[in-house]
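Chapter review: from sequence to fold.
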Amino acid sequence: MEEAEKKSVGTMAVSAVILSKPGIIMSVAFTGLAGMVIANRAFPSGQVVFLCVASLLLSAGGAAILNNLLDKKIDRQMTRLNKRVEALRTLGDRNAWAISILMMVVALAVSVSYFNYVNAALILLAILSYTLIYTLFLKRTSPFGTVLGGIPGALPVLIGYTAIKPVPQLDAIIVFIFMMLWQPPHFWVLAQKYRKDYERAGINVLPVALGTKYTNMLILIYSLSLIPLTFVLWLTGTNTVYFAAFAAMAGIYFNYLVVRSVFANRGYGKAFSASIIYMLLIMLGIVVDILIKSMSPVERVIGNLM
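The token string follows.
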């Protein structure tokens, strides 16, 4: 009996993790870390990183579980979401609600207790804009819903930044805009791949509403716009020319993959993966460039020798 209970608890824990969308929340944590480094101009203290990342993981995970609850009827009609549907069935609606609310409340409590009210307000905005504005309204009413729906996905940069400085400056806003522009083509590629799923579920995403050619053109336009935006970080002094060169090469190669995958052979899965890798590389480039820039000349020499 005891083993059965342990197995049941373990199964429910796994289900909760699946519903929290671990891939997404890890990206959220990483962009939040980038925001902290941008604000601090160096790597923050371990305590700040731990608490900020914890609040990001909890708030994003809780919002993701709530999203599954609000979208459960839609998700049942989409074959790609079978694992999440089964996970919600295993966990149960009541448990999912309880876990979701608990995670979000703890995230806000951590933010208010250790950071500031601006940070907490941004976390609350991310939760509400994702679960209510996007999930319940934009997603269901407009094929362009993902444009404004990118707000909660871009806010982690500002959340990380305000854990260090209460008022976001130009450097953080530039990265916020980058994330806002990155998300629509990232989602549209996925919508192209699973167009039939969305059609079956009655969700009027861009490929369903306006067709493949129009969607592909917007994917390319948005993807190309990311390249000059990364140069702004160099022009404003946030990052060095080395980052600008790295970002340019990454952006050009990413757009090459978009053209080859999306326009040539409809390889939407490859374009989707390339999009994630590109975003993570840009965030990593921002962080590494700032950390190297913050080192003293002696530390740089020692680092080169090692």
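Two observations follow directly from the output. The mean pLDDT is 91. The radius of gyration is 20 Å.
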